[in-house]
């Protein structure tokens, strides 16, 4: 055969010499098989017949795209391509479409769809009877006996040629692969409750009540000091008023004793003066109480604000700790995902290398291949097919890994948004409690 470099095969297929039957020799040999022709439009087949001395009797050059299957008489020609009258070769030509071994079942299903559908329905029914869901079964490559036999013999899409059997191929590759079911990396969801059970968060919760207790003790101390100060001022003022009132009453009693004649008028004046003095004392007491009430209320308001600020600071610390823990957990998941993907990639490369070595070894040990040229072509073809298949597998793995990373990033983004919303809600609850406390607060004092 002549054509493209990969299709050119010279001096490979020969028959044995048939002695004592020069008029009608029968070459009962194995078929001449041309497994695969890359470009049959440019390929030609040369059939030549020689004498036992090596002299050429006749030859014929046939284009492959013009061959027809069946039993054919092929008249031979001279070296100058002039027709000969008698020399003729009777042979059988078989044409088949080249189909790779891995697509054999698919092509069989296309050629007999009714039979394939009935087999699929029977299989599905049998699986349902056994309680097995087809989705739970992963696609595993299985080499059956026919495929194993086909790997040792010329494949389905081959071209055979001999004095009794000549085959011309038409390279049409039909294929379809079942898409592998997507395997997602499952990670446990990161929730606020889970993060709150971390040791770092517990340590923060143990520390914060101590700060709050110290602030409350300081506030209580301030209240006690202000209460004592207010009571002291009020006591002094009341004592001063009582002293002034007693002095006024004693002075009026002395005047009444001296002026007994006008005792009624003096008594009225004395009572009026005492009443004015008591009224003045009450006014001073009220003013003092108002001042102390304002001081006390301002102190209570200030303490309430300080306590609110501490609560808010504690909430911010908790939110910051939870956000940091969330980032750490997400980073760990990304690292674990990357490690899993690297491990899968290494396993894929190792499996591909092992598969390539095993398939090459199978071809090299195939005893049906008779010469080195055919063996080299098989190995070269096998390497090309493996390279294409391996590249596609790696692309699928890369796409799957990209989808896994994108899905995990999307989940992490949703978790971050949820964490931000929950943190904001916690701050809003603190602010709401503070506003309610401010609205419920009333002016007060302790006397």
Automatic annotation (TrEMBL):
BP term (GO), one: phosphatidylinositol-mediated signaling
Region annotation (Disordered) ranges: 147-184, 240-270, 337-361
GO molecular function: phosphatidylinositol-4,5-bisphosphate phospholipase C activity
Keywords, sorted A to Z: Hydrolase, Lipid degradation, Lipid metabolism
Domain C2 span(s) in chain numbering: 1-84
Organism field: Elysia chlorotica (Eastern emerald elysia)
Lineage per the UniProt record: Eukaryota, Metazoa, Spiralia, Lophotrochozoa, Mollusca
PROSITE patterns: C2 (PS50004)
Signal peptide, first to last residue: none
InterPro entries noted in UniProt: C2_dom (IPR000008), C2_domain_sf (IPR035892), PI-PLC_fam (IPR001192), PLC-beta_C_sf (IPR042531)
Basic and acidic residues bias (residue ranges): 337-349
EC number from the UniProt entry: 3.1.4.11
Full protein name: phosphoinositide phospholipase C
Pfam families: C2 (PF00168)
Class of the enzyme per the UniProt entry, highest EC level: hydrolase
Superkingdom field: Eukaryota
Composition bias, Polar residues: 150-170, 350-361
CDD domains documented for this protein: C2_PLC_like (cd00275)
């Amino acid at each position: 055969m002549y054509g493209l470099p990969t299709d050119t095969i010279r001096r490979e297929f020969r028959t044995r010499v048939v002695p004592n039957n020069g008029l009608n020799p029968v070459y009962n040999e194995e078929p001449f098989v041309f497994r695969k022709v890359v470009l049959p439009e440019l390929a030609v087949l040369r059939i030549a017949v020689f004498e036992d001395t090596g002299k050429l009797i006749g030859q014929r050059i046939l284009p492959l795209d013009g061959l027809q299957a069946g039993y054919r008489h092929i008249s031979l020609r001279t070296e100058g391509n002039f027709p000969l009258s008698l020399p003729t070769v009777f042979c059988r030509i078989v044409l088949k479409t080249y189909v790779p071994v891995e697509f054999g079942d698919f092509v069989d299903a296309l050629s007999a769809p009714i039979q394939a559908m009935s087999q699929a329905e029977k299989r599905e029914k049998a699986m349902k009877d056994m309680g097995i869901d087809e989705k739970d079964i992963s696609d595993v490559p299985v080499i059956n006996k026919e495929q194993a036999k086909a790997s040792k013999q010329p494949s389905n899409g081959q071209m055979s040629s001999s004095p009794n059997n000549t085959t011309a191929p038409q390279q049409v590759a039909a294929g379809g692969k079942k898409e592998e079911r997507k395997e997602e990396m499952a990670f446990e969801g990161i929730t606020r409750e889970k993060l709150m059970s971390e040791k770092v968060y517990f340590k923060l919760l143990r520390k914060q009540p101590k700060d709050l207790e110290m602030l409350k003790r300081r506030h209580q101390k301030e209240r006690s000091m202000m209460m004592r100060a207010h009571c002291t001022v009020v006591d002094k003022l009341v004592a001063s008023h009582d002293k002034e009132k007693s002095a006024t009453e004693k002075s009026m009693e002395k005047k009444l004793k001296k002026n007994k004649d006008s005792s009624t008028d003096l008594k009225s004046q004395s009572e009026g003066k005492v009443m004015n003095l008591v009224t003045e004392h009450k006014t001073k007491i009220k003013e003092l109480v108002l001042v102390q009430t304002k001081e006390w209320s301002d102190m209570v308001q200030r303490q309430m604000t300080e306590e609110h600020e501490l609560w808010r600071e504690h909430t911010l610390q908790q939110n910051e700790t939870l956000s940091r823990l969330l980032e750490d957990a997400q980073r760990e998941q990304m690292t674990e995902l990357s490690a899993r993907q690297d491990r899968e990639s290494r396993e894929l490369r190792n499996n591909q290398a092992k598969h390539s070595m095993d398939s090459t070894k199978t071809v090299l040990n195939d005893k049906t291949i008779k010469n080195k040229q055919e063996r080299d072509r098989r190995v070269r073809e096998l390497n090309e097919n493996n390279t294409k298949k391996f590249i596609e597998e790696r692309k699928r793995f890369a796409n799957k890994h990209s989808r896994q990373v994108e899905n995990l990033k999307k989940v992490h983004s949703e978790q971050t948004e949820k964490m931000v919303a929950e943190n904001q809600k916690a701050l809003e609850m603190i602010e709401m409690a503070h506003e309610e406390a401010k609205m419920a607060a009333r002016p007060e004092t302790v006397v």
